[in-house]
Amino acid sequence: MKKDLIFAPAMLVIGILLFLLRATGMTAHIVISIIGVLVLIAYTVLTKKEWKVPALEITMRAFYGIALISGIVSLNVHGIVALAVIHKVSAVLFLALLVVLLVSKAVSNKKA
Would you write out the chain's pLDDT as a tens digit for each of its 112 residues? Predict the structure, then answer.
């Protein structure tokens, strides 16, 4: 749980910064998303044995990957609305699952 208290808030901050694209600009958006990938990889490696619901943990990381890939593709291919929708929906789902998993881990550790 201690690792979750370090990495999950960091990922929440990264996610919030990524939603502030108009304020940060595209260059910062790209750099922040790369930092997010690095933090997510470290978070995965260090907490994999502690996953309470592995399917949700994998799904959360998959949504970050989908958001990342759809963002990269939409940079190179303009005018496809579906890509923008997929990018935003997967980003929201990533953050929602991150919060749900963090809360569920906190509740389960309080009971123990």
Answer: 677 778 888 888 999 999 898 888 889 999 999 999 999 999 899 888 888 889 999 999 999 999 999 999 988 888 889 999 999 999 999 999 999 988 888 787 776 5
Task: Please tell me the distance from the alpha carbon of residue 81 to that of residue 11, in angstroms, as a whole number.
Answer: 27
Query: Which residue in the block uniquely carries the two structure tokens 């309080």?
Result: 110
Q: How far apart (Å, rounded) are the C-alpha atoms in residues 24 and 47?
A: 30
How many CB atoms within 10 Å of residue 6? 14
The DSSP call for residue 112 is -
User: Residues with Cβ < 8 Å from 3, sequence gap 6 or more?
Assistant: 43, 46, 47, 50
* pTM higher than 0.90: no
